[in-house]
Design brief:
The structure holds three protein chains of three kinds.
Chain A (H helix, E strand, L loop, with lengths): L1 H21 L8 E10 L14 H4 L12 E3 L3 E3 L2 E6 L11 E6 L2 E3 L2 E5 L4 E5 L5 E5 L9 E3 L6 E3 L5 E7 L6 E7 L4 E3 L5 E7 L2 E9 L3 E9 L4 E9 L4
Parallel strand pairs in A: 1-18, 5-8, 7-13
Antiparallel strand pairs in A: 1-15, 2-3, 4-14, 4-16, 5-6, 8-11, 9-10, 9-12, 12-13, 16-17
Chain B lengths: L4 H5 L7 H7 L4 H31 L8 H4 L11 H19 L2 H15 L8 H20 L31 H30 L12 H32 L11 E2 L2 E2 L7 H35 L6 H14 L15 H13 L1 H15 L8 H23 L2 H7 L3 H31 L5 H28 L17 H31 L64
Antiparallel strand pairs in B: 1-2
Helix pairs in contact in B: 3-5, 3-6, 3-7, 3-18, 6-8, 6-9, 7-8, 8-9, 9-10, 9-11, 10-14, 10-16, 11-13, 13-14, 14-16, 14-17, 16-17, 17-18
Chain C lengths: L1 H28 L13 H33 L14 H32 L8 E8 L2 E6 L36 E3 L1 E5 L3 E8 L4 E5 L4 E5 L5 E6 L4 E6 L12 E7 L1 H12 L1
Parallel strand pairs in C: 1-5, 4-10
Antiparallel strand pairs in C: 1-2, 2-3, 5-8, 6-7, 9-10
Helix pairs in contact in C: 1-2, 2-3
The chains are: A mainly beta, B mainly alpha, C alpha+beta.
Chain lengths: ~240, ~600, ~270
């Protein structure tokens, strides 16, 4: 009888201490929306970029790089698509790390940069030539700045959510995009066309996929607990 | 022209109080000094900008100390951005052409000495005169504002060709409000110049003293008179051009922008305009403008040379007619700035012939100056050094004009450093030499003190040799095809010539530093210079017959009467080898 | 003493003038700054005109400086009481000299010089010249060839999409002629064949300048301008913009790539694929 009571009390104490040590769960149980972005039809053939006017960049390539307006992957998938929660999630405060946009080899790296409203944007020039970065927003304040080699990074921020095309005033072929997001739930597809949006509390969400040439598409997804819901976006490719 | 009631009616009351005496003065002498002071500020600003440009050209990666304070966006980390170089270039040109070369030889000295030299008490319209200066001052403030606005000064050069200057911010940095500052400033400047020119013309025609026939006016007065005639028509065309430009920028008009223009990825909302129209309007002003810049200096130099040579020019009449022909021909040549612009190629020939023809009066002038030196008794002092140096510089700058006047050669030399060398030598150097000569010559009259001769001579030698070192190489660079208005030479093509550019930059910095000797001399001598008598140079024209500095109404109660032309030198006068214009003594003409 | 001092500076001035005149003429006489090689058919007319003008300008410049120097040497610091003299012939002689000698000289230059101008501008391109369209924009040149169908597609400014390499605003979806147009950052041409270059300005004023071709022409937005030339030597030559067009003006260039006919045909074929 004594031993049973000891084991019982011991088990209760063990359970209690385990619970005490574990503490309250720091995150609510999160669901995930994941999936793939693909296309149907024949996309336009991307042309090689002629950098002959800028020998200091042209010499960095053994074969000329290809334009990146539409980047495809094996299995008819699309890369560089921004997938994000456009409705159903509250706005998030900007993280303290900067989003970095690099000018290298007379191209923008990455081609599409997603970051949050009021998050610090840091623009770096790693080339031997001067660039003049000129984002072309419709809602935010428009500016352009020259960045000769050796000058400090440009620090900026945007206070409204928007997709902003970016061009270089000096090199006409240089194009990129800023995706300024309201919340932290966004992803950019890679070469395999897949995306994952984790840590979503239960709720009804609208997921939007945006591609710079094909526009955007939305789907509604409801998360009730910790499940993973899988969705697919299919864009109609344009031959020209 | 006898003394009339017109003359008596124009006398204004003696100035009372600080503001009336020194700020809003009706006195042409004060106004002349105010123009000079403004030109002085503008020339040192313009020179400082050119230093920054030259330093950046040869050391493009250099972190220039203090530049970031001037413009954080224009020079991040002290390294000049491409657009800031173009801003400096634009402001340098605008300041120098308008606020220095139109102001100093013409508005400053003309205002001060034209009325005195014709024997008048003041200008015909003293109130207009005061307005002219203060309007010019407002124009300068509006222009300088461009440095302080967020997007910076405009980047399209002092010529502000359209569509670059007309479509607004999509054209580039500084083309939003900076270019509007420019357009507004120049329009205001035009108004001021028109008022000033009217004044000069009315004064010269109406207020000459008894015995002062037109042919007895000193050569510098003639130069100011001819310049003001040219100026009236030229600025009258630039004013509407600037207004139309401002309208294109802000009121949605399309005088200068055609349809289908895409800049910054945006289709511009313009149609029906012509960029060529801007060029025609601008250069219709722009060419006479460069003669507005040089003619007064030609007059001043002629005037000082005669005094320094102690003998008259071979023919003052020929000089007057030559200056008149240059003024007249200056209106027929503007298209030589536009040979390659896309206008009808036949018109290129039509403009080329008058341009080549201008060589004739310019050669006549040069030969008269040179020929007059023969057998003279040349006195060397700071003023005469600059006057003689003017001849050398005018020839140097003028001969490169032979090349550019021919459309065939212009195909190759257009927009190269050859052109930059040409106009800097004639305008930036020769014209400025006239201003320096005038300053050293007339300083004793304006202040009652001499400028320091030793410093003046030092200033001359640094400037004369320095200017050749800076601008002669520009012609060589042009011959090999060095393109102008580039903030940096990034091509292998230019690599072998960077040594030449470095030499030019160093010469420019040294020559520029030498100008501080002049500035110091000017300010120091104003207060501590050796006192000067009424006629320190034994000169003949009317300004030397009145006290130094002159009283508010120039001739006091006397109304001068003129008996001679102003170049009675080399004669047996009672005071020496000269006879003053207002002296009734008759001496036999000097012969060999 | 004052007289002697003044005389010294006058003579020093004369010496400085002589040095300046000689030092300025020296690099020209010694061909230190030669013109780039001429690879055009009309360029020799320009070069001849330039050399002719250089001789006359040089003589005028050096002559004037030397005369000024000589007079400064002779007529400064003269002993008091020295007689004043008048230049023989006086003003009249000099005026006649200026009108007759200088006037004729200068106008002759103008008359003779128009040959070079005429050869570039007064003759149209021949009918079988190679057609290429040049577009100048902030801050690059792009060149368009009509492709195998020999027809240029239409330009639609609202369709310009530089990120997608559509610099000319072509509409291949709807415009069949535009589908085979070749767009290149280099101006590739066959040697010894006349080229008809049609200039189109996309945004602001620019200019086309190839030193070795002795050719320069502004692009005027709103105007259809054209040039024709024949390149006589294979090689790569810089095309630079010479009309201030904005912040990237200094870096606005392209290359003229003159190839043999065979290489050019191969290049065209390769671009069409």
């Amino acid at each position: 009888m004594e031993i049973k009571r000891v084991v019982f009390v011991g088990a209760v104490m063990l359970a209690a201490s385990t619970l005490a040590l574990a503490g309250p769960d720091p995150r609510p149980a999160g669901g995930t929306i994941s999936g793939k972005v693909s296309y149907e039809g024949t996309p336009a053939k991307m042309k090689p970029i002629d950098m002959s006017k800028e020998p200091s960049c042209a010499k960095m390539y053994t074969t000329p790089p290809i334009a990146e307006s539409v980047v495809t992957g094996p299995g008819n998938v699309l890369a560089d698509v921004v997938v994000y929660i456009s409705a159903g999630a509250p706005d998030d405060a900007a993280p303290s790390t900067a989003a970095v946009f690099t000018q290298k080899g007379c191209r923008y790296i990455p081609h599409v940069l997603a970051f949050q409203v009021n998050q610090e944007l840091k623009i770096v020039n790693e080339d031997q030539t001067s660039h003049n970065i000129h984002p072309l927003p419709k809602l935010n304040r428009e500016w352009n700045k020259s960045q000769p080699p050796g000058t400090p990074p440009i620090i900026e921020k945007y206070d409204k959510a928007e997709f902003i095309p970016v061009k270089c005033n000096v090199h006409p072929w240089m194009h990129g995009n800023f995706a300024v997001m309201k919340n932290s739930h966004y992803a950019i597809t890679g070469d395999n066309g897949t995306f994952t949006l984790p840590n979503l509390p239960p709720g009804k969400y609208t997921v939007t996929a945006w591609q710079e040439s094909y526009g955007d598409q939305s789907q509604d997804v409801t998360i009730s607990g910790g499940e993973t819901k899988s969705i697919t976006f299919t864009f109609k490719a344009k031959p020209y | 022209m006898s003394e009339t009631s017109a003359q008596q009616a124009h006398v204004h009351a003696p100035p009372e109080g600080f503001i009336r005496k020194h700020v809003f003065s009706l006195d042409h002498k004060v106004i002349g000094k105010q123009y000079y002071a403004l030109a002085l500020v503008a020339v040192f600003t313009g020179m400082f900008l050119s230093w920054l440009m030259r330093i950046h050209l040869v050391w493009p990666d250099a972190k220039i100390p203090g530049l970031e304070l001037m413009s954080k966006v224009g020079a991040p980390g002290g390294i000049m951005t491409p657009e800031y170089y173009l801003s400096l270039l634009t402001m340098h040109g605008t300041l120098m052409v308008f606020f220095v070369l139109t102001n100093a030889p013409f508005a400053a000295f003309g205002n001060y000495f034209l009325p005195i030299q014709i024997g008048a008490e003041d200008m015909a319209f003293p109130r207009f005169n005061m307005m002219s200066f203060w309007t010019t001052f407002v124009a300068w403030v509006v222009l300088m504002l461009a440095f302080f606005i967020p997007d910076g000064p405009p980047i399209a050069g002092w010529t502000e060709y359209t569509p670059l200057s007309a479509i607004g911010k999509d054209a580039g940095p500084g083309m939003q409000w900076g270019a509007s500052c420019w357009g507004l400033s120049i329009a205001i400047f035009c108004i001021a110049s028109l008022l000033g020119s009217l004044n000069f013309i009315a004064t010269t025609l109406d207020l000459r003293a008894k015995g002062m026939t037109l042919m007895r006016m000193p050569l510098c007065t003639w130069a100011w008179f001819i310049t003001s005639c040219i100026s009236l028509l030229a600025f009258a065309v630039l004013l509407p051009a600037c207004i139309l430009l401002v309208l294109d920028r802000h009121a949605g008009t399309s005088f200068f922008v055609p349809s289908g223009i895409v800049a910054s990825d945006r289709l511009q909302p313009h149609s029906g305009g012509s960029p060529l129209l801007w060029q025609h309007l601008f250069w219709f002003f722009g060419h006479p403008e460069v003669y507005i810049a040089i003619l007064p200096s030609m007059g001043i130099v002629s005037h000082i040379l005669v005094n320094s040579m102690r003998k008259p020019l071979l023919s003052a009449k020929v000089v007057i007619y030559s200056m008149m022909s240059i003024g007249f021909l200056s209106y027929m040549v503007w298209g030589h700035h536009m040979f390659l612009s896309g206008m009808n190629p036949l018109s290129a020939l039509a403009f080329s012939f008058p341009t080549l023809t201008i060589t004739i009066p310019a050669t006549v002038l040069t030969l008269i100056w040179l020929g007059s030196l023969y057998g003279a008794n040349i006195q060397i002092n700071s003023a005469s050094l600059f006057a003689l140096g003017f001849i050398s510089m005018f020839v140097a700058g003028g001969v490169s004009g032979f090349f550019l006047a021919q459309p065939s050669i212009d195909i190759y030399l257009h927009a190269t450093y050859f052109v930059v060398g040409h106009f800097h030598l004639v305008m930036g150097v020769a014209s400025l030499f006239g201003v320096f000569a005038g300053t050293y010559f007339w300083f004793p009259k304006m202040t009652g003190r001499f400028m320091n001769e030793g410093l003046g001579k030092l200033h001359f030698w640094i400037t004369f040799i320095g200017a050749y070192c800076i601008f002669m190489p520009f012609h060589y660079l042009g011959l090999i095809g060095n393109v102008r208005r580039y903030q940096s030479f990034v091509d292998d093509f230019m690599a072998p010539y960077m040594g030449v550019h470095k030499f030019i930059t160093i010469a420019a910095l040294i020559t520029g530093a030498g100008q501080f000797i002049f500035l110091f001399n000017l300010i120091y001598s104003r207060f501590k210079g050796k006192e000067a008598p009424e006629n320190p140079w034994n000169a003949t024209s009317l300004e030397w017959s009145i006290p130094s500095p002159p009283p508010w109404n120039n001739f006091g109660d006397k109304h001068p009467v003129v008996y001679h032309d102003p170049y009675q030198y080399g004669v047996k006068g009672s005071k020496g080898d000269f006879v003053m214009q207002d002296s009734p003594e008759q001496v036999p003409a000097s012969g060999d | 003493m004052m007289w002697a001092w003044r005389g010294t500076m006058g003579k020093f001035f004369a010496v400085v003038l002589v040095i300046i005149a000689v030092a300025s003429a020296y690099p020209i006489v010694m061909h230190h700054y030669p013109l780039p090689e001429d690879i055009s058919t009309h360029g020799h007319l320009i070069d001849e005109q330039l050399n002719e003008t250089m001789i006359e300008a040089g003589v005028a410049f050096v002559g004037a400086q030397l005369v000024l120097a000589f007079f400064l040497w002779s007529f400064t610091g003269r002993k008091p009481g020295s007689p004043l003299k008048t230049f023989p012939g006086g003003a009249k002689g000099l005026v006649v000299f200026a009108f007759v000698i200088v006037g004729i000289e200068v106008l002759a230059l103008g008359v003779m010089g128009q040959k070079a101008w005429a050869s570039v501008y007064f003759t149209p391109a021949s009918a079988d010249a190679v057609q290429v369209q040049a577009q100048a924009e902030q801050f690059a040149f792009y060149f368009r060839y009509p492709g195998p169908d020999g027809k240029f597609g239409g330009i639609h400014p609202e369709k310009i999409d530089e990120g997608n390499q559509n610099y000319f605003g072509l509409d291949p979806e709807n415009d069949v002629a535009a589908r085979d147009d070749i767009v290149s950052g280099e101006l590739v041409v066959p040697v010894n064949k006349e080229i008809h270059l049609m200039l189109h300005g996309k945004d602001v004023g620019h200019s086309f300048y190839v030193r070795e071709l002795r050719l320069q022409q502004d692009f005027m937005p709103g105007l259809d301008l054209s040039l024709h030339f024949t390149a006589t030597k294979v090689g790569k030559y810089e095309i630079v913009c010479t009309q201030l067009c904005g912040l990237g003006h200094y870096n606005m260039k392209g290359y003229l790539n003159v190839m043999s006919q065979a290489d050019y045909d191969a290049w065209l074929k390769q671009q069409s694929q």
